[in-house]
Amino acid sequence: MSATFHPTDELLVAYGAGSLDEASALLVATHLALCPRCRAEVARIETLGGAMIEDLPPADLGADALASVLARLDLPPSPPKPRRPAVGSPGLPAPLRDYLPAEMEALPWKRLAAGIEQVVLLQARGIRARLLRIGAGIAVPEHGHGGMELTMVLQGGFADQGQGYARGDVAMADRQLVHSPVADRSETCLCLAVTDAPLKLTGLVGLLVNPFLDL
């Protein structure tokens, strides 16, 4: 089944240009693995970008350009980045599997609320990517956002603001949105979420527990 809700054109352009942060790029790459439409759009963006570069006039090189290149050739090669062992999670798209240090059930899941768990996959410069696992029929406590949030469904689905999101769909939230998504009753909902600021639970309970929650 094809996705109904997709990353914005701005996100796809930034991904094609290689200018997205790592967490957001991971979410877009995971979506592309499931969405032929967006894969075709990113391919078009990359082709257009390549054509624009070819049309640029040649730039004059500085007098020390050759010496700089030769000096770099004398440097020892950078050590390869360690690659995590392949994890057997066949239901997950390949870009996401590369970020998992272990099988799904062996991941260090942390309880956030009744029926809701998370695993942080990466965090840099305040931008975080995490897996969220929400039990069937469970409502996420009402919350607002300190910034932007991207949520992609990997398994199951959820309802939010009158819309239903299924596998491959991407939901976007900003500072203006206060909501309480509800996982479908049919099965556990697994999502990849990217945030650039903490979430904030609403009401008196939120005031009491927000300082202690890792949201």
Automatic annotation (TrEMBL):
Taxonomically, which superkingdom?
Answer: Bacteria
**Residue intervals of the Putative zinc-finger domain:** 9-39
- The chain positions of domain ChrR-like cupin read 103-194
- State one Pfam family annotation: zf-HC2
InterPro entries, from UniProt? Anti-sigma_ChrR, Anti_sigma_zinc_sf, ChrR-like_cupin_dom, RmlC-like_jellyroll, RmlC_Cupin_sf, Znf_put
Q: What is this protein called?
A: Transcriptional regulator
User: Which source organism does the UniProt entry give?
Assistant: Paramagnetospirillum marisnigri
